[in-house]
Each structure stands twice: as structure tokens, then as C-alpha cells.
Amino acid sequence: MPTSTSSPRARRPAKDAVGAAAVDLARAAAVEVAGEGQVGEHLGSAAEPGADRVVVHRFASTGAGYRGWAWTVVVARAPRAKVATVSEVVLLPAGDAVLAPSWLPWAERLQPGDVGPTDVLPRVADDPRLVQGYEATDVAGAGDADAAALSALGLGRARVLGPLGRAEAATRWYDGDAGPGAPSARAASAACASCGFFVPLSGSLRAVFGVCANDWSPDDGRVVSTDHGCGAHSETDVVVEPEPLAPPILDDEALEPVVIERPATAEAAPVVEPGPASGVEPEPVPVLEAEPVAEAAPVVEPEPVAGAAASEGPGTVEVSTSVEVTDRVEVTESVEVSERVEVVTGEPADPAS
């Protein structure tokens, strides 16, 4: 008689009616744990898988920072009991809850741009980018004649860059700012492969990459691809055009009339004429008197020289002095002194003649 080989289906537990009706009991338990104002509306209930007479009630959380979370209350009923009791109250996230990212070990949290100049990274023993290198027998000893050649070839290191490491580096460099897609490369008129400052790398990367050695280039000291480029290429040139001069701001040859507005002078106060009705007496105007003019000094006549010869005739000198004094009262006085002084000149007579 044939037998069925299919496994029996797992029995789904039926929701207990007493436990499903204990909504108020579940809410009171959630409020007791969460506090007033932290428990929202009832989101529903469901039977606990694999358990009999166990029902799970869910309530929305209204707490700040817990959007999408739900207060979960588990109630159970003993066999032949008429009431349910609370077994557990816990806050669980729902589908749209804000959660922290999954745990990541500290050694895997660092990114290539996170390492500073003084930071030291731990050694990765099983780094997939590196492969086992060759070890020389006596690289540092004086008896090994091939020590320099081995060191130049990279031999003697415990690990060297493998195919995976080279492929990742080439892809990163070519797709970044060192490749042909950089803004400076798209604007350049020639590629780095024809530049005299391009120093190719060694090994298999030599065919695609090199180092820029031009201090005028923005890529100086960096790895660039052969089809990269910039404006500091050694063989490119531009036509230097004279810089256009802007028109002068100030024209010295043009005459511009300038109107100067003088400030308005204060109007003179009206003169009040004395009259019989006003009773205002005019103030006397002071009159400035002229200072007396000093008298002219008397003219002293020179004494005649004894024995002077009178053959030449007397000389005549006329002295005229005029003094004029003027001040604010327009007083002018003119004094004129005229004297005739007779001077007898000649050589003295010889007493013996």
C-alpha cells in the first residue's frame, strides 16, 4: 500500500479570544513602562507562532526619535483560565523605523580618505591586493653581488602588489582626476604622453601611467595617465596678444564747466528808524580816530669842510618823505618834507701852497 512521503504542514496556532480581547490590559502595561503620552493607537494583534493561548498586541510609539517603532505587549492565558496576564512589554522597530547602521568592525570603518599624515594603520595579514614576494638570501650583506639589482627589481620584500591590487589602482587612477575625464584633460590641446615632463612608471603600469614632473602643472608629483593633459605641456604654445587698454576714466583734454554755488549770506537786519511811535533810540556808531603821525626828524646840516675847493660847485640833494596812514574810517593824511641840503665836495687844500 503506497505511503505519502510529503511532510505534514505545520499547524498555525489559533488566536486566543481572551488574549485578543485584552487590549486595555495590554495598553495599561505599555503605559506603565513607557510613561504617559508615549503610547499611541492600537496597531493590531496576532497569535505568537509556536505557542498556545499567547497573543501579541502592538501599539504605536509617539516618543520623539522613535518614528515607526511600536510598543509590543505579550499576553497569555493559562489552561482553563478566564483572564489573560501580561508576559512581556518591549519596544520593537517596524518596517519604516529609523535604525542605526549595522555593526561594522573598527578595522573596516576607515576609508581611504580618512587616514591623516600622522595616523598608523594596522597590518592586514590577508590583504587580497598583495601577493607573496621573493626573498633574497643576503640582500643586506656585502657578499651578495646582486643585492642592488634585487632591490631595484623589488625583490626582497615580503609581499608585492598583485594583479588585483594593480587592477584596482589602475581603475581608480584612470577614472579619477588623473585620467582623461578630468576638466584639465578635456581642455588640453596635447596629451601627457608627448610631454617632456612625463616620467613613465615601471612594470606593467608603465604602458598607461606616469608621474608629472612639471612644477607649473596642477598635477606636479602625481600619477597621471598617458592621455591626461593640462595647460603646462612642454610642447604647446599660445599666441600672446597685447592686452587691450581700457579708455581713460579722466579726460585731461576736455574742458568741463563747473558751477560753484556760493552759500547764501545772512540777510542784514532791518534798520529801525527812530520815530515818535517806536521809541527806539539808534545806537551810536563808534568813530575810530587816526593815530597821530610822528613828526619828521630835523635835518642836520653838515659842517663846511675847511679849505675845501669850491671849483667844482656845490651839489644839491633833495630829500622827499611821504607818510600815508589809512584805516577803516578812511582818514588819509599826507605829510611831505622837502629840504635842500648843500654839500661842498672837493679835495682839501695844501696848507703849504
Automatic annotation (TrEMBL):
Protein name as it appears in the record: DUF3027 domain-containing protein
Highest taxon above the source species: Bacteria
Lineage: Bacteria, Bacillati, Actinomycetota, Actinomycetes, Kineosporiales
Pfam families referenced in this protein's UniProt entry, alphabetically: DUF3027
